[in-house]
Amino acid sequence: MRILAKYLRLLGSLARFTLAREMAFRGNFLVKVSVEVIWLGIMLAFYETIFGRTKVLAGWRKDEFLFFVGCFFALNGLIEMLFLENCNDFAELVRTGDLDFLLIRPIDEQFLITCRRVDWATAPNVLMGAAVMGIALARMHWQFDPVRVMAFLATFACGTAIAYSFMLVLTAFSVWMVRNQSLMEMWWLFSSLARYPKEIFLGSRAEPLGFLFTFILPILLVANVPANAMVRTLNPPMVGFTLFATAILLWASRKFFQHALRSYRSASS
Questions:
Q1: Is the pLDDT of residue 83 over 80?
Q2: CB neighbours (10 Å) of residue 111?
């Protein structure tokens, strides 16, 4: 617990530092936030158009799907706020040799590399996603259920961890490839898959893809399981599998990242 408290305090200090730096360029901050607001508006307008022509989409009713969109937007915003900028910068650290200065510090390398900056411009995405989820629940007249809420919070945390694991593996490849633009484009592919319900793959020729991205590369679990647990069917086996997959992916991605760091040759070597 003392170690956890230490890292939480450090994360808080890093967050305050990056917030102070962000506020030095308030115009840029406001523009980035405006872009995120517009993006959410476009998503909602797109799905509003779809549900103007159908009442059910892949088994999801309109308000259920609105909750799903809010869940994805909040989760994706959390990932972008905490990790995306840091992982994108990793290739530049390798190329310039600045990674040396991070590796010699008396702190866990993975934590420092992936959490040293907080992108506050994407922090409102979490709040906007939460607002969309709240509106969806109100429109559904959702009745409070503590079991569903606990399952949602647990699987939401698992979805964040699963997405982080995929991002960490893609980041680690930069040690060997140095330039990782094409690798990080894979992250946008994964996030695009997570944006849609896994039910869209059922009963079609794409069903093997649904199985692949649910049970082998479980990116479809990221937003689907939390949203299903909250507003549709609470499926204990799927919740259990999500917890299991999260533990395996966190362990495997950390091992792979540590292997990549052992393969790194510093700028002075």
A1: yes
A2: 13
